[in-house]
Amino acid sequence: MSASEIRCSLANSPRLMKIAGISAAKMTVMAELGKLLLIVGAIVVIIGAALIFSAKMHLPVGRLPGDFVYRGKNTTFYFPLATSILLSIVLSFILWLFSRGGR
Q1: From 64's CA, which of 7, 24, 37, 95 has a CA 20 to 30 Å away?
Q2: pLDDT on residue 1
Q3: What's the pLDDT score for residue 71?
Q4: Residues of 53-78 as b/e, b for ≥16 C-beta within 10 angstroms?
Q5: What is the pTM of this model?
Q6: Alpha-carbon distance 18 to 15, whole Å?
Q7: 69-82 mean pLDDT
Q8: Which residues contact 83 (CB under 8 A, 6 or more apart)?
Q9: CA–CA separation, 82 and 89 (whole Å)
Q10: Report for 2-6, 52-56, 74-78: range of highest mean pLDDT
Q11: HEC sequence for 32-71
């Protein structure tokens, strides 16, 4: 018996769920957690692909005017102010689009 068959039989049988010690609310929470983990994983993959793509295209992300670099004798301090602002604007727009889509 596969795991999906066990889940289906548990979901369809309150008696089996009681024997297994699983409540319907717990199964719903676990299903929502599974969906959330899939979405977070997909976002991480997309961000990783975008970083690889931007490196190959030689986009100036991280080297924009307004990104401060101090190179001392033995230290280097890098403060990507313009990149942070640009990233904040882009992510705010994306999250705004997602919030409008949920309505």
Answers
A1: 95
A2: 55
A3: 93
A4: eeeeeeeebeeeeebeeeeeeeeeee
A5: 0.49
A6: 5
A7: 92
A8: 61, 62, 64, 67
A9: 11
A10: 74-78
A11: HHHHHHHHHHHHHHHHHHHHHHHHHCCCCCCCCCCEEEEE
